[in-house]
Design goal:
- This protein has 6 helices and 2 strands, in the order ββαααααα.
- With 152 residues, it is mainly alpha-helical.
- It has a single domain, classed as Globins (Globin-like).
- A two-stranded antiparallel sheet has the order 1-2.
- It starts with a strand and ends in a 13-residue tail after the last helix.
Length: 152
């Protein structure tokens, strides 16, 4: 984790991601990622898509996803991938899959994490999922699906 310079607007010292304030740590990220993708693999709609894309590389994929969520929630900077490019190479991913993915993620987060952490994970996952969904639609020359704003 990099330190901020003394003249940074939030003061000097180590960077702290948004998850720190709600108790998210590496162990919670690991537990959520592994529980969620275990459920994805069992899902009759999502499982085959992920299995075709990942094949026998699940351990490496889960490690990469833990790095991703660590970067998002703890500002560790460990993740160096390009999610839009990776997902854009997968023609099996369709707009209808994002709602199912987000519902499954939300259910898993609420089961695995304390309430405040689950809320933050779901908020970030929703933002990331919608961004991916829109980016994929645009890159494929499709109109992004219209959705009602999430209720607060």
């Amino acid at each position: 984790m990099a330190d901020r310079p003394p003249d940074h607007p939030r003061g000097e010292g180590p960077r702290a991601g948004p998850g720190v304030a709600v108790g998210i740590d590496e162990a919670m990220i690991h537990d959520l990622v592994h529980a969620f993708y275990g459920r994805v693999r069992e899902n009759k709609t999502l499982g085959p898509i992920f299995d075709r894309a990942i094949g026998e590389r699940w351990d490496a994929h889960l490690a990469k996803l833990c790095d991703f969520w660590s970067s998002v929630m703890l500002a560790t900077g460990r993740f160096q991938g390009r999610p839009m490019q990776a997902h854009n190479r997968l023609p099996d991913i369709q707009p209808r899959h994002f709602g199912r993915w987000l519902a499954l993620f939300g259910d898993t987060a609420r089961q695995v994490c304390p309430p405040a952490a689950a809320v933050l994970f779901v908020e970030r996952a929703t933002m990331i999922g919608r961004s991916l969904e829109m980016g994929l639609s645009v890159s494929r020359g499709e109109l992004p699906p219209l959705r009602e704003p999430a209720a607060r």
